[in-house]
Amino acid sequence: MNIALIAHDRKKKEIVDFSIAYKGVLSTHTLFATGTTGNEIAKATGLPITRYLSGPLGGDQQLGAQVAAGNMDLVLFFRDPLQAQPHEPDITALIRLCDVHNVPIATNMGTAEVLISGLKNGAFSFRKVVKSPESND
Ligand SMILES: O=C(CO)COP(=O)(O)O
Known about the structure:
47% helix; globular
């Protein structure tokens, strides 16, 4: 599965700790991230991660494009609900695209825990069925 990892600044420690805790599971999947989040997770875990631009510079949009193209199976996005982000429209767009394409997205660590459990027990096999190729239909 292709997994996107994203965290706002005050959630970076949470996603790093989460990635360390679930390194075993994450290492069996293909990982993508926004710039700074990816750097911090890679430094802490040694996991290979394809890194896009930093969120405020377009990283959320780049990941959104992958969601729209059917290339992302799971998005773990540790959002900061207590701080306004300059790129809020990009964040909203990424979440919207996940809803459009039925891509599971966790916006906090609690949901991420549940989805990671799902990854381990085969709950993501539905992705093979719903994954649609790029299409204008
Ligand atoms: O801003 C972000 C998500 O909206 C995350 O970007 P960084 O991982 O580059 O900090």
